[in-house]
Amino acid sequence: MRGFRAALARAASRSRAELQTAQRRHPSDLAHRLSHSGASPASLSFGIAFDIDGVILRGRSPIGGSPQAIRRLYSEDGSLKIPFLFLTNGGGVPEHKRALELSELLGVHISPSQVVHGHSPYRELVNRFEDDLIIAVGKGEPAAVMTDYGFRKVLSIDEYSSYFRDIDPLAPFKKWIVQKADHKVHPSYDVFEERVKGVFVLSDPVDWGRDLQVLCDILSTGGLPGSGRGDQPPLYFASDDLEYQAAFPSERLGMGAFRIALESIFNQVNDHQLKYISYGKPNPFVFKNAANILEKLAMSIYPCLLQTKELKDQHLSTIYMIGDNPKVDINGALKAGPPWLSVLTRTGVFRGKDNDPHFPADLVVDTVEDAINCILEKECIQ
Ligand code: G3P
Ligand code: MG
Fold this sequence. Notes:
By secondary structure, this protein is of the alpha/beta class. It is built from 14 helices and 15 strands. It folds into 2 domains: about 210 residues, Rossmann fold, CATH 3.40.50.1000; about 160 residues, HAD superfamily/HAD-like (Rossmann fold, 3-Layer(aba) Sandwich), CATH 3.40.50.1000.
């Protein structure tokens, strides 16, 4: 333990005060958890999960020395040295597309299996909805994502709304819309007859006013706007982030804020409560799924470990969650418990001097580069 503390202190001299703060708050817990995370360098039995917004990027710009930090996880020949993935509540594009975008921005090869979006668990729901008409909501290409997952009858809320004349009474005032779809009928099926069987919010909705109206229509009528009241179809949110960092100096309202708006309006115009399921961090199952992916990555990097007992019968001994949002990233790692340890950066939602009072991280550092320096020194990796 003494050696580890010394290593941490050397690697993160800027972070000494923060580490001491964490130790002051939870001395025995921190010591206990860190002493259980002592993977020998030979086994390399640790992995890393990076949050994206506020840790790796703000908007599309890399922050906190993220390209250098990520490059340290690769060998000189460009092959992956340390198992890591991106665990984000964001999304709106297929994982393979996000992997390409991150590869370009960070200058390394990222595979689609290293990208876990808030909506990635929707994949598991394909069988339930088979050929049902479902609506995909949010920025980017939400319908393309759902089609990519295997859903067969998907419409984006943009396209779906365009079939219903006057469904958005404010549309004529939306001068900022340059291209307006004006479909009269869908080429393959009748949206005026067929009920929507499921609504999936994948990413931050773009036109809140219209989306609140159209979703209230779908959810109050049993899936057919303009018809009478009916049972609410299932509603899913990819995450419940109230706020996120983005490029503006202060936080922006996220999907959780949209959920609150929809829920509060729906509950006012109906005599029953809105039902929904939210995915994303801090749900422990998201962390469990990430741990499984990291274990597979570890085995692909070090196939020889398959022959040994190192990873065959055991799980990774430590997984570091590096995030900027205490309520989401740190809370999630805390809820998930061992082998998760949390590292909080000051490049996003969290800007405090000390640790977060409600969801204290195991370590607080300025940037993701500082986080990687600490982790690699602790794990005795050059
Ligand atoms: O819209 C994205 C945001 O809600 C969170 O992204 O990467 O911080 O989990 P991230
Ligand atoms: Mg974040």
